[in-house]
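JOB MANIFEST
job_type = single_chain_structure
chain_count = 1
residues = 147
[input]
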Amino acid sequence: STMILLPSLTAFTSSHLTAILTAKNQVEFDTAFDALFARDVDVTYNGEKLSREDYRAQLFSQGSATFEEKVASISIKDQLEVEGQVSGLVGLFYTSIVDYKWLILGAHAESQITSTFNAVIQDTEPRPQSPFRGYFDPRRIVTVNQI
């Protein structure tokens, strides 16, 4: 049997966060959100405790899926993780830019969010009962502190 290597904590977090913020519709957003955050995630956002659903709404409002007329991109500026571990701590510093297709004074409107995203990642998901073997990542974020 071949061992499947899981992505690093940074790769896991940045790829899923990018998928959340660049999702084109609600279904893509929900799939990406559920693939990153545990069902009972502990969230602190700008110093306030949020429920999972409130945090979902907050991230949804920052991404591409809220309006058909905007496109988001994300740029990871810096990262920190405990090397060689598949669960543990990861930190990202990123900028998300949302370009709106409508114009203000002849120029496309744009919003930019710079954020620090610190998370604890653990195995939380049971392997699905399936006769097929293949890629499965049981990790989810169990604690997030975002500013």
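[summary]
The longest strand covers residues 88-104.
Helices lie at 9-21, 26-36, 52-62.
exit_status = 0
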